[in-house]
Amino acid sequence: xxxxxxxxxxxxxxxxxxxxxxxxxxxxxxxxxxxxxxxxxxxxxxxxxxxxxxxxxxxxxxxxxxxxxxxxxxxxxxxxxxxxxxxxxxxxxxxxxxxxxxxxxxxxxxxxxxxxxxxxxxxxxxxxxxxxxxxxxxxxxxxxxxxxxxxxxxxxxxxxxxxxxxxxxxxxxxxxxxxxxxxxxxxxxxxxxxxxxxxxxxxxxxxxxxxxxxxxxxxxxxxxxxxxxxxxxxxxxxxxxxxxxxxxxxxxxxxxxxxxxxxxxxxxxxxxxxxxxxxxxxxxxxxxxxxxxxxxxxxxxxxxxxxxxxxxxxxxxxxxxxxxxxxxxxxxxxxxxxxxxxxxxxxxxxxxxxxxxxxxxxxxxxxxxxxxxxxxxxxxxxxxxxxxxxxxxxxxxxxxxxxxxxxxxxx
Amino acid sequence: xxxxxxxxxxxxxxxxxxxxxxxxxxxxxxxxxxxxxxxxxxxxxxxxxxxxxxxxxxxxxxxxxxxxxxxxxxxxxxxxxxxxxxxxxxxxxxxxxxxxxxxxxxxxxxxxxxxxxxxxxxxxxxxxxxxxxxxxxxxxxxxxxxxxxxxxxxxxxxxxxxxxxxxxxxxxxxxxxxxxxxxxxxxxxxxxxxxxxxxxxxxxxxxxxxxxxxxxxxxxxxxxxxxxxxxxxxxxxxxxxxxxxxxxxxxxxxxxxxxxxxxxxxxxxxxxxxxxxxxxxxxxxxxxxxxxxxxxxxxxxxxxxxxxxxxxxxxxxxxxxxxxxxxxxxxxxxxxxxxxxxxxxxxxxxxxxxxxxxxxxxxxxxxxxxxxxxxxxxxxxxxxxxxxxxxxxxxxxxxxxxxxxxxxxxx
DNA sequence: ACAGTTTAAATCACGGCTTGAATTAAGGCG
DNA sequence: CGCCTTAATTCAAGCCGTGATTTAAACTGT
Lengths: 411, 411
What we know:
Two copies of one chain form a homodimer. Chain A has helices at residues 9-27, 32-39, 43-55, 121-139, 178-183, 195-206, 266-269, 271-277, 287-297, 302-326, 336-356, 359-364, 376-391, and strands spanning 30-31, 59-64, 74-78, 84-90, 94-101, 106-113, 146-153, 156-159, 164-168, 173-176, 190-194, 215-220, 224-230, 233-234, 330-334, 366-369.
């Protein structure tokens, strides 16, 4: 089937509304003249489209630029109060629900700890629905102003034509029709996506990935994964499971990984694996605290230092794989373990990556530390409905008449 | 900068011309009614656009379907004789130039062997220009009917804004401004691309990849590389060097690769590496013949069999990396060594890939043998101008007034 | 041979959109 | 206040796709 993205003059207006909205959102405040120069639209078109966006309440004045003798420019911005967004982080240990305005300023947040690792699907679904009601009430907004709900989950999300189905091994979910289940609790548009991908999108929008077109967000936690962005768009693959970097082979026939294969990157650099192999691991300590202890001990303990040196080499080689295969301009190292170990390991990781990557792509790729912690899964999930809204030119889908989770679209 | 792909009603017509042309090209012959059904265009629009394409000579009648009592459907197809395409394969051992019609039927071909491994850039450029003249004369066509020249080269091609620059280590080329050099010999639009990528495109268009949207063409020769296709488009990366699969790490600190790094897949499964490690390698035999001998000897020689078993495991793990990272629906194993060893190794490769790949993406990916030999680099190169032509809706760029190689666009 | 029915394709009126040119708006300066 | 400069708006024109209508081309029955 041919690709049918634009075909009538109405699509033209929608495309140009989207282009102006996105440009204002990421680069604003801007004048109409700058919008025209940057987007290539004629002055008349900018005037027409901006006029419509202002009439719709999506765009507002943001001040006046000083004049050197001609007519002064009026600055414009996206109206932060036009609508609201909800972001949900469904994790192994908690369900976190946040309400944001269009600037992604957090207006309310609620969090529930899970005692069973998230295995009880119905319980999680109930917590999401309750959290949605709670943040809406806390912020004192009308539910009708919510443009959509983005949900990040710790597994693979298959985007079916009428529902999102989640496979999340770490919380024991197998083909859970989460879209349909959440639909029972709300009429708002739903956008369900892998949590690593929502965290990756957050880094791309306002973290270390900002401004890059081809990037990889490499996430190290207990497990290891990546979010690949190609030409500004997320790389999904045939069934949306692309980016399983943690299960690429670093040593054929090597250490057994919890996924079942041998020699996976995760079996060498995942926090769980590190702590398993560390003979000085303190007993009874949580994973994060234990890894912090390992990092601290590496300063004066040879075994801990050697373990982290080996980790840096494997990480560097794994990053070199990303460089050689994806040819990104930027690699962002994130995840709770990545942020914890990053400051100490990054120089050695860069050295190792330079050794294993081809010279030409390696020269073009910077390796940087992420800027956002794991709480950013929530705001990253809120970017899902926002991206959709911006892509549609600010014409949100109707909350009524929809019986399924929305197909997820990214920035 | 916002993505500005369509903005005026002229772009609408261009997009719809492109959609109809591509659909007719890949799926034709078809009636107007089928075109409308498949593309979603209204009957009136199909009538208008097809009428224009017929008037322009791009589309012609291809027969009439039988009628059951209503008006019979008229079948349409792209006019094979509308224009011509040239495909060039610049390799280590030869320069091959072919002239094709729009159906990619070969009308003439010429080939020159290289005695210096392609190191003399000026000599290669002269051979290309001479070959172009030669095939044009042999086929007895007007040069003005040639829509463009596609060139496949054995290295990384950086697509600059006004020229293609080639880095091809195997033929000793470092930052060769091939676009500018070839420009001196012809006014035709030039499209320069990595030969593995043109071969990959050929497999996608009329080989084992046909019909797939997310695929990887994995090429095994002396070296190892891949051509990644995402959502029907080639995955390029920031500087067009994506797909260097042969230099992903299979064993941290392992065998030294000719690229300088340790543990690369190429150091384990590339033909050059295999022959280097085979103690029974016959002296004075060419690479292809020697590999054929290895394959044949594996039937009754334990060492040869063990070497190929190890190769299958590394190949399977390398393919599993592609599955886990790119989530393709299809992996095509090609390249001269891949085609030679494929029939014998494919069962073991599939077994190994299933062991190393995650279950969910692994279940969705088929692993198949390529259908085209290395001569397909030439016809694959011819698909570059053709893809551009189809993408532009059949409005070819003017040959005059262009001082640089064209930015390459793929199917 | 003709009328009626069916299916395919062409034609037409209409509305929407962007563009470039012309006009209006809003400063600064003498 | 007039002139100049720069920003924004308005207007006429052309292009495009759509849905409704008309025309075209077959088949069947009388």
